[in-house]
């Protein structure tokens, strides 16, 4: 499927979703935000899709906000600004909360909201030479709607430096602070992404969704405050059909049915 701003390929349970505006470095505008949100909602609802790979066509993953869109937003009043910001915030929220694991395939540059997409996903693989940046302050703006996801990945200390300076940084630093999980030669990018996808397909799809929900519930809280919550969650998963199948497969020394 090819839309105005996106391309979607689905095969063997893997959805490869491409930002497809290479002529403007995959910068996004309101139309792309709406299109991306709609496709993500469809993929979330699909029982046949188990993993989402998010990439960018051309040389750059995403340079952030489109220049023409920024010009239009600059003329908006408060109500229009709130509406546009809410739609963007809802996109990042939907990406982060999807029960499907999201792997970001990153090359060239991921700036501003483009870096936010990387942060809102689950696993990120970047090509050597990729440049990252939360550059909003250099335009007199702030990385507001992406901030919960960026802080969740890189922590407050790194965010203080990068949010306040707006400086660009390389893939090695992105890996060091936890924004990406692997940095590889660009020629190996697809192979490493595919290896991550293969690992995700070995896990129970409902277990992955439950693990993502568990992370949201437990992160930043004291162990004593979430003890009963963790007990309830593991008990529910063990008793579920998928949990029972996984345990039987392990004891019977066979592969579980979701890998067949």
Summarize the structure.
The protein is an alpha/beta fold. It has helices at about 30-45, 65-75, 80-95, 115-120, 145-165, 170-175, 190-200, 205-220, 225-240, 240-250; strands at about 5-10, 15-20, 50-55, 100-105, 110, 125, 130-135, 170, 180-185.
Q: Your description of this structure?
A:
The protein has 260 residues and is of the alpha/beta class. The protein has two domains: 6-201, 2-enoyl-CoA Hydratase, Chain A, domain 1; 205-259, Lyase 2-enoyl-coa Hydratase, Chain  A, domain 2. The chain has helices at 30-45, 67-74, 78-97, 113-120, 147-165, 171-177, 189-201, 205-218, 223-239, 241-251, and strands at residues 6-11, 14-19, 51-56, 102-106, 109-111, 123-127, 131-133, 168-170, 182-184. The protein has a six-stranded mixed sheet, sandwiched between helices. A three-stranded mixed sheet has the order 5-7-8. α8 (205-218) packs antiparallel against α9. The longest helix is centred in the middle third of the chain and has 20 residues, at 78-97. The mean pLDDT is 95.
- What structural category do the secondary elements indicate? alpha/beta
What's the helix count? Answer: 10
Low-confidence stretches: none
CATH class placement of the largest domain: Alpha Beta
Characteristic key phrases:
alpha/beta, Lyase 2-enoyl-coa Hydratase, Chain  A, domain 2, six-stranded mixed beta sheet, three-stranded mixed beta sheet
Helices and strands, with pairings:
Layout: E1 6-11, E2 14-19, H1 30-45, E3 51-56, H2 67-74, H3 78-97, E4 102-106, E5 109-111, H4 113-120, E6 123-127, E7 131-133, H5 147-165, E8 168-170, H6 171-177, E9 182-184, H7 189-201, H8 205-218, H9 223-239, H10 241-251
Helix pairs in contact: 1-3, 4-5, 8-9
